[in-house]
Amino acid sequence: MQGILPYLFCAILYAAMGLYFWRRHWSAAATLPDTVPANGTAERLCMLALLGIHAALLFGAMFSGGALRIGVGDAISAILWLAVLIYWLGGLFYRLEGLQALIMPAAAIAVLLPALFPAARPLPNAELLAFKLHLLISMLAYSLFTIASLHVLLMAMLERRLHRGALPAGLRTLPPLLTMETLLFRIIWAGFAMLSLTIASGVVFSEEVFGRTAQLNHKTIFGIVSWLVFGALLFGRHFYGWRGRVAVRWTLAGFLMLVLAYLGSKFVVEILLGRS
C-alpha cells in the first residue's frame, strides 16, 4: 500500500488541477465577467511542478533495480506525461485553455498505472542508442496523436455548438475554429513525422534493437495502417481541403489503429494473458 501512495498523491493533484480548469474555464466562467483574468503564470507553474513529480515517479518505476522496465502501465503513463509536457509548451504560444480540463483527468488515471501494473522483466538491449532513440520517437508520436485526438474532439464539440447557436463559457474562451484546425494539422504533421521515423527505425534497426529481423506481425500491420490513415488525411487536407467531420473521423481512426498497434497488444499480453 505504501508504494502506491506517491502515485495516488500525484493523481489527486492532477485531478484537482483538472477540476480547477473545468471550474475556471467551463463552469465558473459562465457566471464570471469576461474581464476576470486567469492567473496563467501560476497555472503553468503548477502544471510544471506536477510534471516534475510525475517524471520522478516514472523514472523510479521504469529504472527500478538498475534496469529499464516498461510495461503497459509505464508506457501509457509516459505517453500522457509527454502529452501534458507538449501541451504545456504549446500553451506558451497558443490559447489552449479548453484542453486543460480534458487532459488532466487522463493524466490522473495514467500516473497510477505503473503502480497498478508494474513491468515484470527488464527490457533487452535497453543500453543501445538505437533502442533509446526508437523508444523516444515512438513515445513522442503517441503523445502527439493523443493531443490531436483530444483536440479534434474539442473541435467537434465547438462546431456542433456553433451550429446550434449557443456556446458554453468554456468554448467561448477557445481560439476561432479555423485557428484550432490549423493547429490540429500542425500537430498531426509532427506526429506523422515521428510515426514515420518510428516505423523506419523499427525496420532498419530491428535486428539490433529487438534481436531479430523485422516481422509482419499485428503490431507492424496496425502501425502501418495508422501511418496510411494519417498520410491519407494529410494528403486529402493538402489537395482536397479536408476539414471538419472528415478530419475528426480520420484522426480518431488513425489514433485507434495506433493504440491497437502497441498498447492494445501489450494490454492483452501483459494484463489479460499475464505474460511479460
Could you name the key traits of this structure?
mainly alpha, 2 domains, 11 helices, flat
Task: Characterise the protein shown here.
This protein has 276 residues and is an all-alpha fold. The protein folds into 2 domains: 1-123, no CATH class; 124-276, no CATH class. It has helices at 5-27, 40-62, 72-90, 97-110, 113-116, 129-164, 169-172, 177-204, 206-210, 218-240, 244-272. Helix 2 packs antiparallel against helix 3 (72-90), helix 4 crosses helix 6 and helix 8 packs antiparallel against helix 10. It is flat. The model is unreliable at 28-37 (pLDDT under 50).
Poorly predicted parts = 28-37
Bulk shape: flat
Please, how many helices? 11
Number of strands: 0
Order of helices and strands: HHHHHHHHHHH
Largest sheet, if any?
none
Structural class: mainly alpha
Strand content range: under 5%
Could you tell me the mean pLDDT? 81
Count of the separate structural domains: 2
Radius of gyration: 20 Å
Q: Assign a percent range to the helix content.
A: over 70%
Distance between the termini: 23 Å
Topology:
Blueprint: H1 5-27, H2 40-62, H3 72-90, H4 97-110, H5 113-116, H6 129-164, H7 169-172, H8 177-204, H9 206-210, H10 218-240, H11 244-272
Helix pairs in contact: 1-2, 1-4, 2-3, 3-4, 3-6, 4-6, 6-8, 6-11, 8-10, 10-11
What is shown here, in short?
This protein is mainly α and 276 residues long.
